[in-house]
Amino acid sequence: MNAGARLTAAAAGVALAAAPVLRRARPDIARAVAARRRATAELVAWGRDREPGPLVWLHGASAGELLGAAPAIRCLRGARSGSRAGARAQLVVTYGSPSGRAALAWLDPDHAGPPPLDRARDCDAALAAVRPGLLVFAKLDVWPGLVAAAARAGVPAALINGTVRDGSRRSGALARRLFRASYARLDAVGAATPEDARRLEALGARPGALAVTGDGAFDLALERADRARTDGSAAAFREALGATDGATPRLVAGSTWPADERALLDAAAAVRRDGGPGWQFVIAPHEPTAAHVDALVASCAARGERIIRWSMIGAAAATPDASVIVFDEVGRLAELYAAGDAAYVGGGLGGTGLHNVLEPAAAGLPVVFGPRHDRADARALAAAGGALVSPVGALADTLTGLAHPPRRRRHARAARAFVEAGAGAAPPPAAPRRPPGPARPPAAAAPARPGRPGRRAPPR
């Protein structure tokens, strides 16, 4: 067992032993550990009764990683469907965060849930029961124990949309020593960019298994935005959100944290105080728990905002003079963005980091976010003119500038063009089937990413 697998196995043992303390001090962690402890039995029970045939196992940390993997997984399920007419490979999806459930509608898995604890007994049992033909990790959430178990079982393992952010904890000297063997065991690695490919090689990925294939998150962002327009969901959102007075643009603030919400409301008040154009805000918190939504509604009311909750709108449209609509639902941001005039993406002022900037850009909206981020796509979007990076003190000025339609349209065109230029990810890397045991033949290189495509037609 390599050092990384020993570390994660030991961490799992400590977490299980500390469960009584965690239930009192950190109930969220205790629930996650309990869910992963149950996951092995759930995977074994499902695998015992599953229909024979090819199967792909996909793992991602949360919804964003899983959604970006959706185009590649569709290709894999078709490629591994065998000779049966109309058949397709089965799919197991595991995710580290409960937010991963929001991606399931786009992946259509046969089984989904948390991954097993990353120790040999759990991973070996799950793999033996499920019998996948391929194990796929999305972005960077590679679990050493699961990779080692796949090697023992003769199951090829691959990484798609591989992305290593600046300052990633896995890039440190100690982390590289601990996890190098796990990345070296991957049979195929598709990197999002050449920079990511260099960083993945530094983490241990073998050059012969590594290729730049692009990031399927661009493709899915376009697909979701175009579908929202063509299937009527964007129009339905616009109707339910209510017509503004024509001079009041609508800003959709997605995946916000309390720091984002305070900054937005402060900026709105400053714009009005200076006689500038007003905005209607649709705020969709990253965690729309009852407590968070209640606190946000109370804060808006205390500031004198004309507030309404999305869940209270029902069949009737929001009143035209509503200045803030709190969107207390999850999993529908792509359609919501398509009903806006501009977007704010949360996490750049605090929280766990900046969230998905590609979805609002694909919807053709100028994107605003805070300065605390390490996302390469966010930096590139800003450099292309599709996004504005705004510290708290400058947010009111940013909103005042975007209230002018010509400027808003200029940034919107740049945002959409940026996503279109990044789309066209190559098919997922093909990992060879290898026999069980420690011997590992060299992996075939993944196909290189094609050149930049032109404008994509909306999906049918």
What does this structure look like?
This protein has 460 residues and is an alpha/beta fold. The protein is 45% helix and 13% strand. It contains 18 helices and 14 strands. It has helices at residues 3-17, 19-25, 27-49, 63-79, 104-107, 120-130, 144-153, 173-184, 194-203, 216-230, 233-241, 258-273, 290-302, 333-337, 358-362, 376-383, 395-402, 405-422, and strands at 55-60, 90-95, 111-113, 134-138, 157-162, 188-191, 210-212, 250-256, 280-285, 307-309, 324-326, 342-345, 367-369, 387-389. The strands form 2 sheets. The protein has a 7-stranded parallel beta sheet, with helices on both faces. β6 (188-191), α9 (194-203) and β7 form a beta-alpha-beta unit. α3 packs parallel to α6 and α7 (144-153) packs parallel to α8. The N and C termini lie far apart (48 Å). Residues 435-460 have low confidence and may be disordered.
DSSP strand tally: 14
Strand content: 5-15%
Percent helix, as a range, is: 40-55%
- Spans of at least 5 consecutive residues whose pLDDT stays below 50 are 435-460
What oligomerization state is this entry in?
A: single chain
Number of helices: 18
Instruction: Return the average pLDDT rounded to an integer.
Output: 86
Rg, Å, rounded = 23 Å
